[in-house]
Amino acid sequence: MCAVACADAFAGSGRVLAHAVGTVPSIGARLARLTSNPELALSDGEAFLMAEPPPLGGTAADGGVVEGWLPFRSVFDVLAAGRRHSMMGASQVDRFGNQNISRIGPDWNRPKRQLIGARGAPGNTVNHRTDYWVARHSPRVFVEAVDVVCGVGHDRARAHPSTALRFHDLGVVITDLAVLDYDGEGRLRIRTVHPGVTPDEVRARTGFPLDGPVAGRTRSPTAEELRLIREVIDPRGLRDREVPG
Amino acid sequence: MTRKTLELGDLTTVVESGMTIGIGGWGSRRKPMALVRQLLRSDVTDLTVVSFGGPDVGLLCAAGKVRRVVYGFVSLDSIALDPHFRAAREQRGLPVTEYDEGMFVAALRAGAQRLSFLPTRAGLESDVLRMNPELRTVASPYDDEVYVAVPGIRPDVALIHLHRGDVHGNGQYLGPDPYFDDVFSLAADRTVLSVERLVETAELAAAAPQSLLVNRLFVDAVVEAPGGAHFTTCVPDYGRDELFQQTYADAAGSPERWEAFAAEYLNGDEASYHAAVRALHARRVPEGATA
């Protein structure tokens, strides 16, 4: 379900480099490449572009057809050129899509929890389409205000006085409960809830109001998509470690 | 041509307390770990470390040798966060300069070109600018764009590790990614290159010319250090030692565990380090199995 939602996020991206952080987004990107978006380019997580989706957790060293060389220095060039689509994790997200992966706590100099750092989030969000994946939808993630803005949200992007943020493009936030997108004011709202989940459950586990109508239910995978996920993309079932059940 | 070979034990003739050191590699990949271990054995301290951080940052933090870390991230790759770095931040409030990765690259490239800054879009409207209030933006003279002006970084010394090299300081990488080791060598005032194996200059041309990543123009000392990237990956020579990396990470659990880890692995010389690593793996061979 979540993987298919991730794949749908990549469906309309066209000829871009998929950047997927986490197991479910990685499955989603591979699934999109095999179904809805054959133009999508996938990396092996190391330095190679792969003509066919590499096995989950594997690199070019484990086999497969290499179609390009993409060392880290080139990733920054592709990113700045804008031909990329990221789906990143988020330790915190606020209603405008500001994302934090740097540190938790009010004191930046002595954080309650030091996280990985801003990584590429500031640059990704001002250069190309960026989505977020949250494996456990909770009010600890969906907060009123993030402690550190790494990925830039709509409020800040719209307040920026120059034209430099014209490539800012937040798409969706996919969680274990729902798919969220942004309304005309740049605020998060529920687009679809996963089967068996009610909008009220999503709202109860979100630290800010989610207003507006809910478009409906997240679609279920087709038989062919299920086959691809189970037999081709993730035969070892790594997805179950990220989202139990 | 000058021979630039340096004994590992003489590293402190190049690296001194208070310096800014740039460390090549990426996360837990091809880090100059033998050079880092040598710093741990030395009196050198009060270092500003500039790195796409991995266990180089964690080890130097755990040993109390770091004044500040400048980074785009600190990660062990297969383990998301280096616990020693995390402890230094959470328990001691270790000062950091945290950049977006693209900003970090801009800082290195600016340093390499001796520019005071390079512009980038990355970082605009993010808290990276608020966490580092010394950062400024620059208005484009051509249109209505504004960019982050990332100040150039020029380390006193760069430490990098490659697969092959010669005594003159020419260096070759044989793995899939150069990372930014050549940029570090350009940006730093002096560069120490450690290599898995020293070879004759003529042997370097056996591989593709693109593999000759750094050259003697920008290398001041060459250290032959087999296993010099252990426990990080140095493919094709060897991969990451995940068992040892986990052992290293677990040592962050308490000061006592760090002391025990240091006693077993870090307090001797490089040969005893590798012997202790072999012993760790030997202990993990199941009962009755033949190695």
List keywords for this structure.
heterodimer; A: 245 residues; alpha/beta; Glutaconate Coenzyme A-transferase; 7-stranded mixed sheet; 8 helices; 14 strands; 22% strand; B: alpha/beta; 2 domains; 3-stranded antiparallel sheet; 10 helices; globular
Description:
The complex is a heterodimer of chains A (245) and B (291). With 245 residues, chain A is an alpha/beta fold. Chain A folds into two domains: 17-85 and 220-245, no CATH class; 90-214, Glutaconate Coenzyme A-transferase (3-Layer(aba) Sandwich), CATH 3.40.1080.10. Chain A is built from eight helices and 14 strands. In chain A, strands 1-5-10-11-12-13-14 form a seven-stranded mixed β-sheet, sandwiched between helices. In chain A, strands 2-3-4 form a three-stranded antiparallel β-sheet. In chain A, helix 5 (154-159) links the parallel strand 10 (129-134) and strand 11. In chain A, helix 1 packs across helix 2 (23-34) and helix 2 packs across helix 7. Chain A is globular and about 45 Å long. The mean pLDDT of chain A is 96. Chain B folds into two domains: 1-240, Glutaconate Coenzyme A-transferase; 242-283, no CATH class. By secondary structure, chain B is an alpha/beta fold. In chain B, strand 1, helix 1 and strand 2 (47-53) form a beta-alpha-beta unit. In chain B, helix 2 (55-62) crosses helix 3 and helix 4 packs across helix 6 (181-187). The mean pLDDT of chain B is 96. Chains A and B meet through helix 3, strand 9, helix 4 and helix 5 of A and strand 3, helix 3 and helix 4 of B.
